[in-house]
Design goal:
The protein is α+β, with helices and mostly antiparallel strands. The protein contains two helices and five strands. The strands form two sheets. It has a three-stranded antiparallel beta sheet with strand order 1-2-3, with no helix packed on it. It is globular. The model has no long low-confidence stretch (mean pLDDT 96).
Length: 116
C-alpha cells in the first residue's frame, strides 16, 4: 500500500502545569484549528503511539491530583469502549471487538459506572 502525500498539517497542543514535585495540577489541550487562547481543561489523558520503525507502543498517562476515583472509573470505562470501537473499525473483527465491548461493560458494572 502506498503512502498518501500530506496535504495539510495540524497540531494538537497539550499543556501540562506541574506543581513543585512535577505532578500534574492543570492540563489543557487545543487543536491548531482553534484560536490560541481557546484551551480546553482536562483532568486526565492517555496518549498511545505506535512507532513506525520499532513497532513498539509508547504511552503517556497523566491525570491531575484532583481527579477522583469515580471519574477514573468512568474515564476507563469510556476508554475501553472506545478502544473496542477503534479495533473494530480498523480490523472488522466483530467477534473480538464484541468480546472487548463485553469486558468494557463488565468493567462498567464492577465500578458502578453502569447499573448491574
Amino acid at each position: 500500500m502506498s503512502e498518501a502525500k500530506v496535504a495539510v498539517t495540524k497540531d494538537i497542543i497539550v499543556r501540562v502545569g506541574l506543581d513543585a514535585n512535577n505532578l500534574p495540577v492543570k492540563m489543557e489541550w487545543r487543536s491548531s484549528d482553534e484560536p490560541a487562547g481557546n484551551m480546553h481543561e482536562i483532568k486526565a489523558m492517555v496518549l498511545s503511539m505506535f512507532d513506525k520503525e520499532t513497532k513498539d507502543t509508547m504511552k503517556l498517562d497523566l491525570w491531575t491530583m484532583d481527579f477522583q476515583m469515580n471519574e477514573m472509573d468512568r474515564y476507563m470505562y469510556h476508554s475501553l469502549r472506545s478502544l473496542a470501537d477503534t479495533y473494530y473499525k480498523a480490523t472488522k473483527n466483530k467477534e473480538l471487538a464484541n468480546k472487548m465491548q463485553q469486558f468494557a461493560n463488565h468493567f462498567g458494572e464492577e465500578t458502578e459506572v453502569l447499573a448491574k
